[in-house]
Every structure is written in structure tokens, then in C-alpha cells.
Specification:
Chain B: InterPro entries: DHS-like_NAD/FAD-binding_dom, ETF_a/b_N, ETF_a/FixB, ETF_alpha_N, ETF_asu_C, ETF_asu_C_CS, Rossmann-like_a/b/a_fold. The complex is a heterodimer of chains A (249) and B (323). With 249 residues, chain A is an alpha/beta fold. Chain A has helices at 37-53, 68-77, 93-104, 126-134, 187-195, 231-244, and strands at 2-7, 9-11, 33-35, 56-63, 81-86, 111-115, 137-147, 151-158, 161-168, 171-175, 198-202, 210-216, 225-226. Chain A has six helices and 13 strands. The longest helix of chain A is centred in the first third of the chain and has 17 residues, at 37-53. Classes of the chains: A alpha/beta (249), B alpha/beta (323).
């Protein structure tokens, strides 16, 4: 079995977002970059499949030189090889999906795993787009995955519960928190990863069809007020305010 | 035409779909286009309701092969309908199904896609979307260069607007079987309450709850207010047995209820990212310096274990959440 794991480099979840001078992109100063948290579940799942039944795991990222960190980390955790597609990995989801599809289409991958969303553009779109471009099955926001002979069963989160999706391989599966508990890299893994080479390829040309033309911080929230007194009085005052001022009820 | 993919539940249009239709009507009026509503399933009974929200045309694909949701079959159906009707804008609600089918359909059409949008406009005949990025820490305006533009609308953001449309019914052929994947079974959780992303009132607990069992008092308050319970990442990761589906924040759900009550939540950037779109925020925390108070419309400095039960009692006495 051959597994591709697509990893995105994203700003750390605790990053305070600042808008760059161009008014439409993220100011990269002070941004700490990490592997997308959901991508970590995708990678862990691939490694577990490899350990359980044997598989070749290829880690891939789209980006510039800094994205190599993500790939180095994937190698340390257990990926067999790593590919950097040199291109804009932070932009339009369809363009990124096209770059990855162009790379993956003749490689014979049985399974493609990625996070259900990055935590930048938050489009949650690359996975299903990649599935369509490759003409394969998909299951998104998956918390449990079982593989059969050329088939899969995936439990995915939906409103108020989950649903079981069955399909044929190859497939694109996007990971959700709960799929597994990602491991930490061992010292041995980190040392071994340093010796491996990351294959670098130019990403296929893929024009962006959805473009960010402006980026702005959310509007400031109006100042609130504190409710004083004993708990019972505070509770009463709050409900009264929500009813009369906010008209929530 | 502006085409809206709609979901039915128990023979009624789901509220997030009705919101998408309402917004679709507004966009159609602004740009002189027709509004189409698209339904698919074993039965599309109830789809006529789309006329109430301004649909000029109601397209239905009915058939046994559509009884269960299939990503590839539905995406193909949606893309084919867009093509057949010459639609230039495709909308769906940003629900589990909408977010599964819309990007796949967009890729099939080579169309630009904006997910979970909070604002839409027609500019020079093309869709323009405003949407939260970095989980609400910033808002991006998205413009499109593709002939067809696709967006999913965030639930609870777009106002429902009733405006009678012609609602001309038109049947579409259902695809023949042989799908790449299909939903075999729905595993519903107990209670059947609305999802956090669609809830009007959310009562959320953080590290200050001290234990998962203590979330009972939040359940009681949520019941009294007609709401549902959420949690911060700190609470979900604390090993208290809370499911991730409850998590609100950058690596959880991004919610926009009318009322968000944060109990024992300090207000880490990670959490704020997921709930700062709430209309009214109430913070209950022992620490008067907790960052959550900076966002709060109403703040209560105090012991949540005293305040929350008092709130429940008072809400029950006032009969809130009954209507």
C-alpha cells in the first residue's frame, strides 16, 4: 500500500494575526510556523497503517524552503520519503489541489491523507477538491478509519453525531481530532531524518481562481459592563439585561 | 441564475439552507438574476417550501440512488445542474454536507470556492465574499476569476427573509448507482440537540469547570435557556471525557450564536478565535483580569459554581427558553 500525506505549514494557533502593508496578506513577522494540527492526525494515521500492515508513506508539502521543516518533522515521525512542491501553498485551495493532483496522479497512491482543514485560509476544501481532480472517493472530517481489501470505512463528524462512509480505494481521507493521538518524534527518528533528502520539484502551474483582495482584523467589540452583587443578584441582573437591553430572549 | 443546494430534514428545509436561499434571493435581486433551489434525495417532499424564500425555480433530483449521501454522486449532480441551468453562482450552507459537496463540485467545474462566508455581494456581476480566516482572527475579502463562483454560507449569520417566488418545479434525472463512496449509516448522538455551529445559545465551560462531571450544571443552564453546551480546548484536552465535537476554538468549531456564555474560560487566543463572532458574550470567571472579560458584553466576576445554578434558577423562574 502506498500512502500520500499532504501537510500544510500554518501559523501557530496562538499567533496574533497582523495584516501586512499590502492590506491583503498576513504580516509574516513574529509568526511561528507549525505543521497544521489536523495534518498531524493524518500523518499519524499513515504511520499507524504502515506499522499495522506495511505501507510506503510519502509526505508532501506545497510551499517554499520553510515548508521543509514540516517535511523534516514528518520524516522524523516515520514517513519514508518527502516531497516539496515549490509553489504557493498558502493561497487558493483549488490551485494547491491541482498542484498536488498533478504530482500524485500517476504515482499509484492507494490512500491520500490530509487534515480536514488548515488553520489559515480555513477553507476545508483542498481534500475534497483533490479527490475530485483525481477522480477518487473522499471522506471528510474523519474520526475513525478502517481499511479493507481495496475498500475503506470511515466515521465522519456531522451535526449532532457522526456517519459511516464506505467507499473504494484509492480515496482521499481528511482527518479530524479524535482520529488518533499523534506521537512525538524520537531522538533516533530526528537524527535519521537529518540524513534523508527532501525531493524538491517545481509545482505545476495552477492559476488561483479565488483570490484574497483584502484582509482586515475583526471590528473591536463594544465595551461591556460588569454585573456586581451576590450571585443571585448577578444572575437576575444578567438575565434582565439580556432580555431588555440585548433582547436575546 | 444563482443556484442554492438545499438540504431537507423530516420534510422541511433545514434552517441553514433557508438562510442560504434568503441570501441567494438578495444577491439575485441585486444582480437581476433568477434564483434556483436544488434538492436531491430519495424523496424531495417539502422542497416546494423554497418558494417561500424566493426561489423562482425548484429543481429536484429524486431516486433510490440518492437515498444516502455520496460525495461524488452529489457533487456530479450539483455540477451538472449548474451547467444545465447556466448558473454562475452556486451556494450551499456550510453544514457537514455542504462543506463536503461544494468544494468537490467547485473542483469539478474549475470554479473558485469560498467556505463558511459571513458576507456576500455581487460586484460587476461576480460574487464577492467576506469570510473569517485564521479562525476568525481576521476577515478576508475573496474575489473570483472563474466563470462560476461557489460559496458556503455560515449558519446563523444570514437573516431568514421570506419573499414569495414563482417556485416552478423541474425534475432532474437521478444518477445511476455505482458511487465511489456512500453513507452507510448515521450514528446519532443521544439527545438529538442542535449542533454548536447552528445553536442560538451556547453555554461553554473551560478549565475552571475542574471536572467533566461538573458540566452537568452547564447542561442545566443550557436546557433552561434553550441552548447547547460547548467547551474550550483546555477542557477537552484535560482528559475529562469531553468529546472533541464540543470544542469551540481555532482547532475546534467556530461558532456564531446570539448568546455565548463562557464559564471558567480565561480567553486564550485559540478559544477567542472560535467564538468572537458571537453577538453577545457573557463571561463568568473568578479572575477579574481574565482576557475573556475584554470581549464580554456582560461580565460576572465570581465563582461559576455559585453563579451558574443561580442563573439556571432565575431562567426557569422567568420562563426563558420555553418559547
Amino acid at each position: 500500500m502506498k500512502i500520500l500525506v499532504a501537510l500544510k505549514q500554518v501559523p501557530d494557533t496562538e499567533t496574533k494575526i497582523k495584516v501586512a502593508a499590502d492590506g491583503r496578506s498576513l504580516d509574516p513577522a513574529d509568526v511561528k510556523w507549525i505543521t497544521g494540527p489536523y495534518d498531524e492526525y493524518a500523518l499519524e494515521e499513515a504511520i499507524r497503517i504502515k506499522e499495522a500492515k506495511g505501507a510506503e508513506v510519502v509526505a508532501l508539502s506545497v510551499g517554499g524552503d520553510t515548508a521543509k521543516e514540516v517535511l523534516r518533522n514528518a520524516l522524523a515521525l516515520g514517513a519514508d520519503s518527502a516531497v516539496l512542491l515549490k509553489g504557493d501553498g498558502q493561497g487558493d485551495a483549488l490551485a494547491v489541489a491541482q498542484m498536488i493532483a498533478t504530482y500524485a496522479k500517476d504515482k499509484g497512491f492507494d490512500l491520500i491523507l490530509c487534515g480536514n482543514k488548515g488553520i489559515g485560509g480555513d477553507n476545508a476544501a483542498m481534500g475534497p477538491m483533490l479527490a475530485e481532480l483525481l477522480g477518487v472517493a473522499q471522506a471528510n472530517v474523519v474520526v475513525k478509519l478502517e481499511l479493507g481489501e481495496g475498500t475503506f470505512r470511515a466515521e465522519r463528524e456531522i451535526e449532532g453525531g457522526s456517519e459511516m462512509v464506505e467507499g473504494s480505494l484509492p480515496a482521499v481521507i481528511t482527518a479530524q481530532k479524535g482520529l488518533n493521538e499523534p506521537r512525538y518524534a524520537s531522538l533516533k527518528g530526528i537524527m535519521a531524518a537529518k540524513k534523508k533528502t527532501i525531493e524538491e520539484l517545481e509545482a505545476a502551474a495552477a492559476p488561483a481562481v479565488a483570490v484574497v483582495s483584502a484582509l482586515a482584523l475583526p471590528p473591536e467589540r463594544p465595551a461591556g459592563r460588569r454585573l456586581e452583587g451576590e450571585p443571585a443578584a448577578q444572575a437576575q441582573a444578567l438575565l434582565q439585561a439580556l432580555k431588555d437591553e440585548a433582547k436575546v430572549f | 441564475m444563482i443556484l442554492v443546494f438545499c438540504e431537507l430534514k423530516d420534510g422541511q428545509i433545514r434552517k441553514p439552507s433557508a438562510e442560504a436561499l434568503s441570501e441567494g434571493r438578495r444577491l439575485a435581486d441585486a444582480s437581476g438574476k433568477k434564483l434556483g433551489a436544488l434538492f436531491a434525495g430519495a424523496s424531495c417532499a417539502g422542497s416546494a417550501e423554497a418558494a417561500k424564500y424566493g426561489a423562482d425555480v425548484i429543481l429536484t433530483a429524486e431516486g433510490a440512488s440518492l437515498a444516502s449521501y455520496s460525495s461524488d454522486a452529489f457533487a456530479q449532480l450539483v455540477a451538472d445542474a449548474v451547467k444545465a441551468k447556466g448558473a454562475t453562482v452556486l451556494l450551499a450552507a456550510a453544514t457537514a454536507m455542504g462543506k463536503d459537496v461544494a468544494p468537490r463540485a467547485a473542483a469539478r467545474m474549475g470554479a473558485g470556492y469560498a467556505s463558511d462566508v459571513t458576507g456576500l455581494a455581487m460586484v460587476d456581476g461576480k460574487l464577492q465574499a467576506v469570510r473569517p480566516v485564521y479562525a476568525g482572527k481576521a476577515f478576508a475579502t475573496t474575489t473570483f476569476t472563474s466563470a462560476v463562483q461557489v460559496a458556503t454560507t455560515r449558519p446563523n449569520v444570514f437573516a431568514l427573509a421570506e419573499k414569495a417566488g414563482a417556485g416552478a418545479a423541474e425534475a432532474l434525472a437521478a444518477p445511476a448507482g455505482s458511487f465511489k463512496s456512500i453513507v452507510k449509516e448515521i450514528l446519532a448522538k443521544a439527545g438529538g440537540k442542535v449542533d454548536l455551529t447552528e445553536a442560538n445559545v451556547i453555554v461553554s465551560g473551560g478549565r475552571g469547570m475542574k471536572d467533566g462531571a461538573n458540566f452537568k450544571i452547564l447542561e442545566d443552564l443550557a436546557d433552561a435557556l434553550g441552548g447547547v453546551v460547548g467547551a474550550s480546548r483546555a477542557a477537552v484536552d484535560a482528559g475529562w471525557g469531553l468529546p472533541h465535537s464540543m470544542q469551540v476554538g481555532q482547532t475546534g468549531k467556530v461558532v456564531s450564536p446570539t448568546l455565548y456564555i463562557a464559564c471558567g474560560i480565561s480567553g486564550a487566543i485559540q478559544h477567542i478565535a472560535g467564538m468572537s463572532g458571537s453577538k453577545f458574550i457573557v463571561a463568568i470567571n473568578k479572575d477579574p483580569e481574565a482576557p475573556i472579560f475584554k470581549l464580554a458584553s456582560y461580565g460576572i466576576v465570581g465563582d461559576l459554581f455559585e453563579v451558574v445554578p443561580e442563573l439556571t434558577k432565575a431562567a426557569q423562574a422567568m420562563g426563558i427558553g420555553k418559547g
